[in-house]
Write a structure and sequence with these properties.
The protein has 297 residues and is α/β, with parallel strands linked by helices. The chain contains 10 helices and 10 strands. The structure holds coenzyme A and magnesium ion.
Length: 297
């Protein structure tokens, strides 16, 4: 489970170097929107050299390539795959078809470069075109490479000519609340991580905490960041609190003591099957985070 994904522009050597040491579970080295067209080849070279020489074992590196229908996509994939990123982020994905094309590219390049087959994951940004919004239910079962689904508001807004995407209280306007929800359910239908989009206003960490808490309550399990200051807030919000862990363990212990019970009560509240599932998730996530901390030391 990846809680935090920190973007770093692929043509900015200093930021790329810095991003690895911030504590983000994943760093996304960007070749797309944060890199000017004239600098795409420079970014590809930099990202590929970085991945071959300096990557940290505790960080999962993704590379955001350019969209499938751009003139850069094929060269991005060809240059990046030999440097073995953990995954490829596919922006402006238009559903299963685009992912299947990328799967084929990856399969050929993995074979050519002696990389374990099916090892490079795919993380689509699944809501960046108007057509994409109608494809969010398509991702289930298409490939074991799929590691999550995430969504974006900026490009979708530009695609439909929207002048704003945030309300005065900084919550999303209604069209974006809807695509956020579709991404959430599409990801869970595909049994992969639902990952919340970036918050551009990177100085407002109070608001970030609020939106992270809401996202986690809704079923998102991670969030993307654009600035190092956002990472700690995201990691904390998407980690179980000590109280949550204690409660989850109590739920599991109670059902273990009563193996034939379907419904029980804990502290005056009914608990049943969905509570067991949720408690299991929380304990598993805590164990994963604890294991990661050991590796980091
Ligand atoms: N990754 C790594 N380091 C970053 C960073 C990032 N995403 N964003 C900022 N930093 C570094 C800065 O280089 C600076 O380092 P320094 O103290 O060693 O000089 C430090 O963090 C503080 O940065 P700050 O001055 O607050 O911001 P900035 O003006 O340098 O950068 C942005 C602001 C928005 C341009 C920058 O955060 C950024 O490039 N974000 C990622 C953009 C991106 O990838 N977008 C694509 C996805 S939407
Ligand atoms: Mg974009």
């Amino acid at each position: 489970m990846i809680r935090s994904f920190l973007f770093s522009p692929g043509d900015d050597e200093k930021k790329i170097g810095k991003a690895s040491g911030i504590g983000a579970d994943s760093v996304i080295l960007d070749l797309e929107d944060s890199v000017a067209e004239s600098r795409k080849p420079i970014a590809r070279d930099l990202v590929s050299k970085f991945l071959l020489s300096e990557k940290k074992s505790s960080v999962e590196y993704y590379v955001r390539i350019n969209p499938m229908d751009s003139p850069f996509c094929k060269d991005d994939v060809a240059k990046i795959v030999p440097s073995k990123p953990a995954g490829i982020m596919l922006p402006k994905a238009n559903g299963a078809q685009d992912v299947e094309v990328l799967v084929n590219y990856l399969a050929i390049l993995e074979a050519e470069h002696g990389i374990t087959s099916n090892s490079i994951k795919i993380l689509p940004v699944a809501t960046e075109t108007a057509a994409a919004v109608f494809t969010l239910g398509e991702y289930a079962g298409i490939t074991s490479r799929l590691s999550g689904l995430t969504w974006g508001a900026e490009d979708l807004g530009a695609a439909v000519g929207a002048s704003v995407n945030l309300q005065s209280d900084k919550d999303w306007t209604k069209p974006y609340q809807m695509v956020r929800s579709l991404c959430l359910f599409g990801a869970h239908a595909a049994e992969v991580q639902a990952i919340d989009t970036v918050m551009a206003d990177f100085r407002d960490l109070d608001q970030l905490k609020k939106v992270c808490d809401e996202a986690r309550q809704d079923g998102f399990t991670g969030k993307m960041a654009i600035h190092p200051a956002q990472v700690a807030v995201i990691n904390e919000a998407f980690s179980p609190s000590p109280q949550e862990l204690q409660h989850a363990k109590a739920v599991l212990a109670l059902f273990e003591e009563n193996p034939d019970a379907g419904t029980l009560q804990l502290d005056g509240k009914m608990i049943d099957k969905p509570h067991i599932v949720q408690a299991g998730r929380i304990v598993a996530l805590s164990e994963q985070i604890a294991a990661k901390k050991l590796i980091n030391k």
